[in-house]
Protein 1
Amino acid sequence: MLIMGEVRTGLLQNSAEIEERDHQAVLGLLAGERVRMSRRPIVYAVSPDLLTGVDCRLPSASRARIRGVGTVVSRSSITGGRVLQGSSYVRVTRGEVNYRLPWSHYLARPGVVEVLGKVSGPDVADGFLAFGAPGEHLDLGSVSDRFMDVVQESPVLDLRAPFRSNRTRLRWVAETGEPGVHFTLGEGQERTLKVTHQGEFSPAVVDLCEDLALHDWLLTTLLTIVQRARIGGASRPEVSARLAPAVDTLLHLWMPGARIHPSLAALWESLERTPGFSRQWQSLVERIRDQLAVNTLALLRETNG
Amino acid sequence: MTSFSEVTAERQIKSGPLSHVSVELGHLYMEDFQAGPDRLRRQFAAVAPWLETVRRSWQSRTPGGRARISTCFLIDDYFSRFSTPSELVPMILTAAAENDLVIDYLARESACAEADGVKLAKLVEDRLVPDPPPGTRGWRPPTHETGWLANGTRSPVAGSGQAMKTAVRWEAPTQNAKRGHSIFVDVELWNDDSRGRTWSCPFLAAVWQLLRLGLLRNEGQLPVQPVAVDGGFPTSWDNLPPVVKLNSSATPFSAYTTLSVLSTRFLQVELAVRTILSQVSVDEEVLKQVLSRSSDEDLRLEEELVDRISYVFL
């Protein structure tokens, strides 16, 4: 059995952090279901899980024609009232028959895509992580994107983001085995993650992938802000003005591993050693604060003449 | 080891009591009422032996023959309003008693749209996961946005603009899960007009089945609780509880399975109901609760929802 998913992460299109009480309106995608929220150590809210039906070819590194039928599980989440994620995943299994069954069969197995015929898990995983053009293949990214768009369409939001940013795309696959994690930073906005965990798959693995996608986006976005500030190139007040959104919006959101199940905490820790997400974040934060401090001193000097 | 949890981050799903089978002894529409009490008596006379068969069949399947069988009856107060509860309910109960039938629960059809302030039909609408035609690889506009739900791909229709210049050749509709040939079904779920939304009869009947199977929740709570009526039935349908408990010793209203004894004129409606129910995704937690309860009773429950629903057409 193979489990694979795609997380898309971006900035919520709203000028301010959204308030706690607005999360239900923004993420309440299903009547009769409450948005789940946690407030410690950071405000995090997640929509109910929703299903999308698919019947299409699955990605394959060997370009094999593999047909899968079933449902994708998706959800939207907001962290710190600022960062929006759309996340989808499927469990790929071999179907018992090689023809399509009535839809009620697939709805009795939420989140499972059954393959009609033979399938090799590693072949599908490699095909998926290769980020080829989706063509006729399963497109988890478009489903995740849709779950971001639905939230952005909420009338509660003013659609004025404090700065420009890109959506990142993280594709992940998970399997059971000796615990390990392998993160690859691809070109542009593409990232891949291979997770090996002990025991049965649980949604805690999805939490881990979403948390990693969140922090990768924070780091990517902060790097872009620092680059755009042209430290050393532009005037000090200009640099400060360009760095300000980072201070207002992003710096306090760094909480790696905050919602990770203890059984998976070691995987986050190994990513902290290499590539060392928090080390890079800390050094960027210090750089920003130093720039602001130097500018403040310059301003003070001018004022005191 | 320390642990910390926040209440609002956890889902809590209530579970309700369940009978083995919920037997629907009939539907009552305006035309049945207009046909007079004789029609009702004849219907109950035809239903009685089937109820007895169901009783015996479940008694043989349960340890000590302790089968929990509840009976129910549905009155339409949604599509047309006729008579009053104080006039109609005693008439139904008399006709049933004459055939040695006990109606345990009485429900109003409008309760399937909204009951006790909970919009049940909306709960079910949001849980529709349309049957994807081959080639569906990601998100696509839901097929039910138009108020229609199909079990396959519709025939193409001539579009506007450029498409009008070339004649559109007729193509057959196809059922997604066809074996050889298609039986294509397209169901109208609702229509909207200036007075608001009117849910279709099959859609409300699908809600009715889900209620009887105990599979609906609103914010984790059971949305409808049967209520006993003391001191006579009201003179207005709005004052009658959505589901009335008529028999104080009845086993629970909801059940692992349902059986509906209906006139063959409901055959098409029920095909539509099954087309809808095949595309409803019931909460996974709720499904697990019901499965674990049934296995505690050594009962093997069908995995697919539609396989828990059966009929006798008369």
Protein 2
Amino acid sequence: MSNEMSRMKFFCDDHRCIECFACSVACAEAHELPTGISRRKVITLFDGIEGKEVSTSIACMHCTDAPCEQVCPVDCFYIREDGIVLHDKEKCIGCGYCLYACPFGAPQFPRDGAFGAKGAMDKCTMCAGGPLETNSEKERHLYGQNRIAEGKVPMCAAVCSTNALLVGDAESVSTIYRKRVAGRGKGA
Amino acid sequence: MKKSIILFIALLGLASVAYANESQIWGEMRIQNILGYGQEESLKLGVLFTMLQSKYFAWVFLGVLLGVPLVFFLHYKIVGPKVFPHSHKKHYAFNLFHRTVHQIAAVSFLVLLPTGFIIVFGDFFGGGTLVRMAKNLHGLFTIPFAIVVIPMALMWLKEALFNLEDVKWFMILGGYLSKEKQIINATQFNAGQKMWYWVAILGGITMILSGAFMFFLDFKMEMLHNITGLSQIDLLRVAAILHNVMGFAVVALFITHVYMSMFAIKGAVYSIITGYVEEEEVKILHNAWYKKLKEKGKF
């Protein structure tokens, strides 16, 4: 198996997503996020239009060629060997460049700096914490739970009642999805 | 002048009001923004910003920061400064208002430029507290500059309009490439000074607005979206690109401005401190202005 295939990925099967918001709420609760910050968001398009309505859940997609990592002026991003894109909040200056580079609108900024300036960026960590000592109090405070280190599935996917939200290495995710598409005969 | 300040404050107020409403970046718009990223028919601003910021901006800034002073260092060594006697008659050209406005802008720039460079080379400084502080000071010192930029634009507007003589000035670069004191037929401001005026004023306003965009981030100005046809996130990308590109010009001409006033023309900087310009200096470098002042019986 090549290294590329073992990268961790999220995938939301919009045929299964029922817009229950469990992923978003569980994430916010598990990581004790401040109000106004939601690392994962559920969005519904064509609400109420039969046959067209579609919902999906979006967070950081942990890109292979992460543009956020390329534009950061203080180089606070790092990509783990398993492909999870993380950042160092103590280095981050809250400039916002990662947000402009991100295709998915993942980076968010709490207004906690001086004069209401943008504070350190916050985004989905795929429940893998940050650069601090694993499972330390400080890591939990800054980045939320480190469930990956405990061998657990990220919170959002763990609570997804329809298993719409898939997470895992890219190959496993695509194998599961391929089976589903073959089973229902549509939605590739 | 007052009106424009009130308008500016009102715009900032509007921005923070809109901030409380539905997010332009993390709300429903998010799906459209994803679809608008790098798609064939989109402007590909996200891709463009990523490419420019990751590969070029910091290098161009480094080039300007080292290259422009290097050129002037060589100029100083080869051509040398122009020295005018400072014991002659003087003319009171810059009153207290002129000087106050100029000095407020000067102090702002002396904070804005170094802090801007600390942000650009943030990885060199290791990020964290120092660079974060630079970012906050960069925003804070925009305020005094924003207050004086309009009065400054108005008080020197008449002198800064280009005329035909300026073409001649550019042809010989104001005579600064020769050791001799050629008589230059410039008015109060020569073409180089005029160029700096326009970059400082128009470029400065561009820097203030694009900087304010990036500071307030998530606001909605219906009018702006309608005129430009851009989503909020694309406007932010344009702001970030403009802020950097305009930064190159402002930095290059700021260094030039400092070199000319402090080194190339010995003692010229005192005219903006005391308000008095030297007769010899005006006679040779601003001859058209000199003739006018003579007619009025000045000196």
